[in-house]
UniProtKB/TrEMBL annotation:
Protein name according to UniProt: ATP-binding cassette domain-containing protein
One GO cellular component term noted in the UniProt record for this chain: plasma membrane
Presence of keyword Transferase: no
Keywords: ATP-binding, Membrane, Nucleotide-binding, Transmembrane, Transmembrane helix
InterPro entries: AAA+_ATPase, ABC1_TM_dom, ABC1_TM_sf, ABC_transporter-like_ATP-bd, ABC_transporter-like_CS, P-loop_NTPase, Type_1_exporter
Length: 600
């Protein structure tokens, strides 16, 4: 999923333009009112200084002429204009806060919808996961910041244009000089902002690495190991190493920017003051009034302030647009369309689950995780998968669950390729417990029945699921019963042991009473071996007529299955029931005796 982590970098200028247009369109849809207020505020706040400079001149000329009426009226107009700027400043703040909420909410929603829609494989891809995290982080603040930066720049340009118009009356050259004064600063700033942009693009991996080390040091689920293995200082040092590399590069660029920026400032200063001297000399020659001189003075001050504001806006724009690149890059990730399912007729006339010469290689991996796996699980039968770590057991379950599609061969359920199954229909057939099951920081009831869109679950059905997973005594001990909040994230939550959580995850699977294909990936690793065997015995009795695929490292459980598939290096090397496999004295027998001797 390289698209998410490292999109081919477009030129900074064209990227900025397209992201600006996209953000404005999104903002318009989220809150046209707020966007209109921001545009209006920028125009008014940009035009007001020109008006104020104009009336400042009238005040000075009025004083020189002794015209009291003009002086007072002009001061009044100036005050009104200033008040207007305050007013639109306040309105701008109000509108941008509103837009921030409205747009942030829409974008967060779009991100979450995208996260639900993409194939599961994305979540095992570090690049995708990273893109998701960054997109979520940026969604609320960056789009509005980008627009605010743009409006700040637009406002400053209106001020500069106003200054040019006012100075035009002294000489067109003066107007030109004011506009030209801004040019070097603009050009250098654009160049450096683009350089920062490229630098940060190039350093994306280092930045991720630094963030990773920071996460390791601050996350609750890492804190235990960090303390007990004493890895804190090591990771801190690694984070610092990345930091100092980044720091040095940034500093060197910042030094260059400072020097070139000072040069550009000097040009602006020279041009401003040339115009100032020109106006002053003409005033001395009595060709211009004191008011004219005052006007020039005010115009320079405003022009200088506007220039600084425009440059700040430009710098912010480049910064924000880069972050928006993450956000839009994520939102643009393709979601595969649903397949046309009507055409798919069963390939075989049979009931049950069949692996036909299945091979599978994880995306981005070179080594196949499965190769040439064949088996058939008839309806009602239980198949256990055993084998060493990494032999491909969980991968088989992931293929059956439809989380991945085989690279070669096919998986058939009731004779029909899984790829041709309607995802909802397939989901309804499955009940799954994975090794890394979820611990919802919600109530017991919500842990067992988390879907709000399904029919309400009766207490009897809930009790049956809890009983099947041996979770009834756990719930019985909780003060709040089914309504007890679990986990420590929220007030009033109660933490459970690993085994207790696992029993609830099992109950979640057992609640799906219509599912006839149960997938258990070491569902009981945190439960003691005796309890596990008892549990499986019970599951077997209670799921009569339903198929089950069970991964377990415990032979006390495995031996209870109807059939056992022994995996090694992605291949199924032995198959049969417990007795037959022992008699064959192969890999299974070796593993079994090895474990049995450990218990003696
Ligand atoms: N998401 C993934 N991306 C790339 N390779 C993976 C991924 N998950 C597993 N693998 C690789 O696929 C192979 C089979 O992994 P699998 O998880 O199926 O083994 P397993 O038999 O269930 O192991 P365990 O007993 O440790 O749970 C391993 O070599 C593993 O490194």
């Amino acid at each position: 999923m390289g698209t998410a982590s490292s999109p081919a970098p477009p030129s900074p200028g064209s990227a900025l333009r397209s992201r600006l247009v996209r953000t404005a369109a999104l903002a318009f849809r989220a809150s046209p009112f707020a966007l209109a207020v921001m545009v209006l505020a920028a125009l008014v706040a940009g035009a007001a200084p020109t008006g104020m400079a104009f009336y400042a001149r009238r005040v000075l000329d009025g004083v020189a002429r002794g015209d009291r009426r003009v002086v007072l009226a002009s001061i009044l107009v100036e005050a009104v204009l200033l008040f207007l700027t305050y007013l639109v400043g306040g309105l701008h703040q109000f509108a941008s806060a509103r837009l921030r909420l409205a747009l942030g909410f829409r974008l967060q929603r779009a991100i979450l919808e995208k996260a639900i829609g993409v194939p599961y494989a994305c979540f095992e891809d570090a690049g995708f996961y990273d893109a998701l995290t960054r997109a979520r982080r940026e969604a609320v603040s960056r789009p509005v910041a980008l627009l605010a930066g743009f409006f700040a720049m637009a406002q400053a340009l209106v001020v500069l244009a106003g200054s040019a118009v006012l100075l035009f009356q002294f000489s067109p050259l003066c107007a030109l000089a004011i506009l030209l004064a801004a040019l070097p600063s603009f050009l250098t700033e654009t160049r450096f902002a683009a350089a920062v942009f490229r630098l940060q693009n190039r350093r994306a991996t280092e930045a991720r690495e630094q963030a990773y080390f920071e996460q390791v040091l601050t996350r609750d689920d890492h804190a235990k190991e960090v303390r007990l293995f004493g890895t804190g200082p090591t990771f801190l040092a690694r984070a610092e190493r990345v930091f100092s590399l980044v720091f040095d590069e940034d500093q060197s660029l910042a030094r260059k920017r400072l020097l070139v920026g000072l040069g550009a400032d000097l040009v602006a200063l020279g041009l401003f003051y040339s115009v100032y001297v020109y106006v002053a000399l003409r005033a001395l020659a009595l060709e211009l009034t004191v008011g004219d001189l005052g006007l020039a003075l005010v115009t320079f001050k405003q022009g200088d302030g506007a220039l600084k504001q425009a440059l700040g806006g430009l710098r912010g724009l480049y910064m924000d647009q880069q972050y928006l690149g993450n956000l839009y890059g994520f939102l643009d990730l393709p979601v595969p369309p649903r397949k046309d399912l009507l055409l798919a007729a069963p390939a075989r006339d049979e009931k049950g689950l069949r692996f036909e010469n299945v091979g599978f290689t994880y995306p981005g991996s070179k080594r196949p995780a499965l190769a040439g796996v064949d088996f058939f699980l008839p309806p009602g039968k239980k198949l256990a998968l055993v084998g060493e770590n990494g032999s491909g057991k969980s991968t088989i379950l992931k293929l059956v669950a439809g989380l991945y599609e085989p690279t070669t061969g096919r998986v058939l359920l009731d004779g029909k390729d899984l790829a041709a199954w309607d995802p909802d229909a397939l989901r309804a057939r499955l009940a799954v417990v994975f090794q890394d099951f979820v611990r919802y920081q919600l109530t017991v009831r919500e842990n067992v029945a988390p879907r709000a869109d399904e029919a309400p679950v009766s207490d009897e059905r809930m009790a049956r699921a809890l009983a099947r997973s041996e979770a009834s005594p756990v719930v019985g001990r909780l003060a709040g019963g089914l309504e007890q909040r679990l986990g420590k994230w929220f007030p009033g939550g109660v933490e459970l042991s690993g085994g207790e959580w696992q029993k609830l995850a099992l109950a979640r699977a057992f609640l799906r009473e219509d599912a006839d294909l149960l997938l258990f990936d070491e569902p009981t690793a945190a439960i003691d071996p005796a309890a596990e065997a008892a549990l499986f015995e019970r599951v077997r009795a209670e799921t009569e007529g339903r198929m089950a695929l069970l991964v377990s490292h415990r032979f006390s459980t495995v031996r209870l299955a109807d059939e056992i598939l022994v995996m090694e290096g992605g291949r199924a090397i032995e198959r049969g029931d417990h007795e037959a496999l022992l008699a064959a004295k192969g890999r299974y027998a070796t593993l079994f005796h090895l474990q049995a001797s450990g218990y003696r």
